[in-house]
Amino acid sequence: MSQSKSRLLEAKKKELELKKAKKKIEADLPHLYGHKLYKWQRQFIDSTNRMNLLTASNQSGKSSAGIRRCISNATDPVRWEMMWGKNVRPKMFWYFYPDQETLEKEWETKWSEWMPRGDMVDHEMYGWRIVKEKGVPKSLHFNSGVIVYFMYYSKKVSAVQAGSVHEIYADEEMPTAFWDELQMRLFATNGIFNSTFTPTLNQLFWKQAMTSKKVMPNALKLTVSMYDCLTYEDGTPSTHITREKIEMAISKCKNETEVRRRIFGEFVTEEGRTYYAFDYDRHMKPRYSIEGWHIYAALDYGSGGGVNHPAGIVFIAVRPDYKKGAVFKAWRGDDEQTTAGDVFNKYLELRDTMPVVLAAYDHSNKDLGLIAERAGVSLLKADKTRDTGTENVNTLFKYDMLDIFDDDPELLKLGGELSHIMNSKQNSASKDGDDLADANRYCNMLIPWDFEAIMEEFNKRQEELHPKIVKPKTEAELIADQIRERRGDFGKPEGEENSWEELNQEFEYWQGQYE
Fold this sequence. Notes:
Blueprint: H1 3-28, H2 30-33, H3 39-45, E1 51-56, H4 62-75, H5 77-84, E2 92-97, H6 100-114, E3 128-133, E4 136-142, E5 147-152, E6 167-171, H7 179-187, E7 192-197, H8 204-211, E8 220-224, H9 243-251, H10 256-263, H11 280-283, E9 284-285, E10 294-300, E11 312-318, E12 325-332, H12 340-351, E13 356-361, H13 366-374, E14 380-381, H14 386-398, E15 402-405, H15 409-420, H16 435-446, H17 451-465, H18 475-487, H19 500-514
Parallel strand pairs: 1-7, 1-8, 2-5, 2-6, 6-7, 9-15, 10-13, 12-15, 13-14
Antiparallel strand pairs: 3-4, 4-5, 10-11, 11-12
């Protein structure tokens, strides 16, 4: 064999060995090379935003996108710098599931599909081991030093009140009770929050997060439908989703609401909203001066504690002409067990030295009124007439008479409640999520709003913006138009009339057509 031929064969051999090694690496790192990505999956996986929200249709690959991102961020120092900055080494991630059963299923089906395998199980960065408790995954330890702890929404919020976390993943719709606590866990690390879900619970907070420009304005927000899964990022057809499969999935949905939710990944409200006139973007406003305005307040009693509904307190400032007001302070006792005395003391703390004109309380708790009376503080029994109070609040929002300041987390909670409360829940045993809304309703019923003047101004403005519709023509006028059209007479100078003889001739003609 010639020397040149020998060198050629050696080069070919090395080339094949490299290809084989590359193929082996790709096979052992499925989270990187295992399956093609959709364009939206790539966008989610590589996002450096501190908040990444993804609502998607069923069976679209949203959960896989979360898992592949988690493994990538746990094992790649290049991504560490991209996500958290130079010289930052993440230590702890939390991965939330609705319950233990869901976690077990996801570990066996999806995590096992994307985890490093073969030689990579012992790799210095990609290597890993799973720690289980009674056969259930508890934590995932990577050789890189990152530990992923598996958590459940079914546990109490108090179970997550420890630790500084670099990244949190929420699979399926997270109960909003966890939100505030989890943000505290991410604060010290400049951590990242990721959520992937199909919006089946229609929760107020997540709906506003996905649809409003004011809630989480800097978050990556992706709404993905099945139609976004027809091709991969390289333009090749999907091997999982086809138009035929989408049509079949649509046929199985019971109504249009389910189609929009499960096929298009959208938030959809089936029942009518109680506070239909409230618009989050329109009525949540930056704080402005309320100096010299009159102050009113209301208290909605609740014992809280995570089982019973929480207490709520609202303060409203009203302009002296009673044509404009603003909810400028509020408090909701989330996860706090409160007595009537606790709620009253919280009211005194919030009121401080403010000169409150009138304040009302939920008189279903007599102790609250008694405690206030003994303390020499005037509290009136709230007008709890639901229909009248609700319509009163809707009227205020309709005519832009009431704003809510958007610079306080407690006030954002009120905005959230007003956005999601449904008529169907108001008279049922499941009525909840309206604690601040009820206090707001009681407070507004105390205020002598000048509705008449503001409605006159509003209607005048509407007439200016939308000129009156031309009065419909009478039958005689329509016949006259038909006459002119038949004769091609559209250019008569103003003031020039048809002669009676001409009109009589035309009327005789049309009368003959009707006979």
